[in-house]
């Protein structure tokens, strides 16, 4: 026991000498405390009052974050930057979606009031982009997932109704008292009656969604199936991006939320229209300017040629022509003369005389374009919808 105390005193003296050689201050020396454990091993602890904090320099901070203030390059990112970027979904801005779902909120407020005969308030919670797999993993269970198909777009979407709204709607439709919170029965699947009532509510939501999309592109949403397990609601690849719209439905002291998920593949047929800033935008076309241009074109003066005869001759024959040679025109005296503007043949006529001038009488109507502007717009719109 005496030998152990001597060893401890010698070890403490060695540590004190080492601190003095490194230039440590008396305060720092006092910060170290040596204790002996039950196993006879000496432990060195730093006193809380004397311990000095180590401050990271700028290089260490940059390595931790994965980027520096001077260089904010997003390529080859690491650290916290890599963790943040892995959860982000890059998507393009679709301004018309905000207008469509604002219109859906107004329509849905009236439709759900008629459907439930209760005071219903619908509000738009948020619109954001998510990855499809992340959304399926974030759905709180129990819930009912309605997979619907957009007939004209030939793709699918998901309408998710959470349990709070399910029990609230069932309670309202089956005559529950107002001001009483719906009782949840956990641990059992939804009955056929409950699934049928929720399906009717989803049909009302999809019908209003059709009206909301109608100014952009007519579409018919048809319910394909109802699922309670998100595993069976896979309508897109896990890493594909999708638009998630969350609607809040409040019925006095009851309510819940409805989420509508539309993958980008579903919205691809009308992507150009959704990128418009306002309804009816024609990407730079101005009807006033079109009418003005048409008026100016009709008033413009152009050069017209009357071609009697036209033929191709070998270059050698042209080089051998001399004064007095005769060129025979392979045409009859009553042959029609072509009236041409540039390289375009406008019409044909007969050559004659009016007074002391040579004239051409038009025998056929002017040749017009086969495709009108209205036909061109109809074909273009039909190609976009297809």
From TrEMBL:
Protein name, entry field: Flagellar motor switch protein FliM
Main location: membrane
Family from the record: Belongs to the FliM family.
GO annotations of cellular component type: bacterial-type flagellum basal body; plasma membrane
PANTHER family per UniProt: FLAGELLAR MOTOR SWITCH PROTEIN FLIM
Cellular compartment(s): Cell inner membrane; Bacterial flagellum basal body
Organism of origin: Phreatobacter aquaticus
Gene Ontology MF terms in the entry: cytoskeletal motor activity
Entries under InterPro entries matching the protein: CheC-like_sf, Flag_FliM, FliN-like_C, SpoA-like_sf
Coiled coil: none
Membrane topology: Peripheral membrane protein
Domain of life: Bacteria
Annotated function: FliM is one of three proteins (FliG, FliN, FliM) that forms the rotor-mounted switch complex (C ring), located at the base of the basal body. This complex interacts with the CheY and CheZ chemotaxis proteins, in addition to contacting components of the motor that determine the direction of flagellar rotation.
Keywords from the named record: Bacterial flagellum, Cell inner membrane, Cell membrane, Cell projection, Chemotaxis, Cilium, Flagellar rotation, Flagellum, Membrane
Residue intervals of the Flagellar motor switch protein FliN-like C-terminal domain: 296-365
One of the GO BP terms on file: positive chemotaxis
């Amino acid at each position: 026991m005496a030998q152990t105390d001597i060893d401890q005193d010698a070890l403490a003296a060695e540590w004190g000498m080492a601190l003095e050689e490194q230039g440590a201050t008396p305060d720092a020396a006092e910060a170290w405390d040596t204790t002996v454990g039950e196993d006879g091993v000496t432990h060195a602890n730093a006193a809380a009052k004397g311990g000095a904090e180590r401050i990271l320099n700028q290089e260490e901070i940059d390595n931790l974050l994965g980027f520096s203030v001077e260089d904010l390059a997003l390529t080859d990112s690491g650290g916290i930057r890599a963790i943040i970027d892995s959860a982000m979904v890059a998507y393009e801005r679709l301004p018309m979606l905000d207008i469509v779902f604002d219109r859906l909120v107004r329509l849905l407020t009236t439709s759900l009031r008629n459907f439930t005969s209760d005071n219903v308030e619908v509000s738009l919670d948020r619109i954001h982009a998510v990855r499809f797999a992340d959304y399926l993993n974030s759905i709180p269970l129990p819930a009912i997932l309605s997979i619907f198909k957009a007939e004209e777009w030939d793709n699918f979407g998901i309408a998710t109704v959470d349990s709070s709204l399910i029990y609230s709607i069932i309670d309202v439709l089956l005559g529950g008292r107002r001001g009483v919170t719906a009782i949840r029965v956990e641990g059992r699947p939804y009955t056929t009656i409950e699934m049928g009532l929720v399906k009717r509510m989803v049909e009302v939501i999809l019908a209003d969604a059709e009206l909301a999309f109608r100014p952009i592109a007519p579409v018919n949403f048809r319910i394909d199936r109802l699922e309670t397990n998100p595993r069976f609601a896979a309508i897109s690849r896990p890493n594909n991006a999708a638009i998630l719209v969350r609607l809040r439905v409040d019925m006095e002291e009851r309510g819940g939320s409805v989420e509508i998920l539309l993958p980008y593949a579903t919205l691809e047929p009308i992507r150009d229209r959704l990128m418009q800033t306002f309804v009816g935008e024609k990407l730079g076309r101005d009807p006033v300017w079109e009418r003005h241009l048409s008026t100016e074109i009709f008033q413009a003066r152009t050069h017209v040629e009357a071609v009697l005869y036209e033929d191709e001759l070998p270059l050698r024959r042209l080089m051998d022509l001399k004064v007095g040679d005769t060129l025979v025109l392979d045409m009859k005296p009553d042959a029609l003369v072509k009236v041409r503007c540039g390289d375009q043949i406008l019409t044909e006529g007969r050559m004659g005389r009016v007074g002391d001038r040579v004239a051409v009488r038009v025998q056929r109507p002017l040749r017009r374009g086969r495709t009108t502007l209205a036909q061109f717009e109809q074909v273009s719109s039909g190609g976009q919808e297809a």
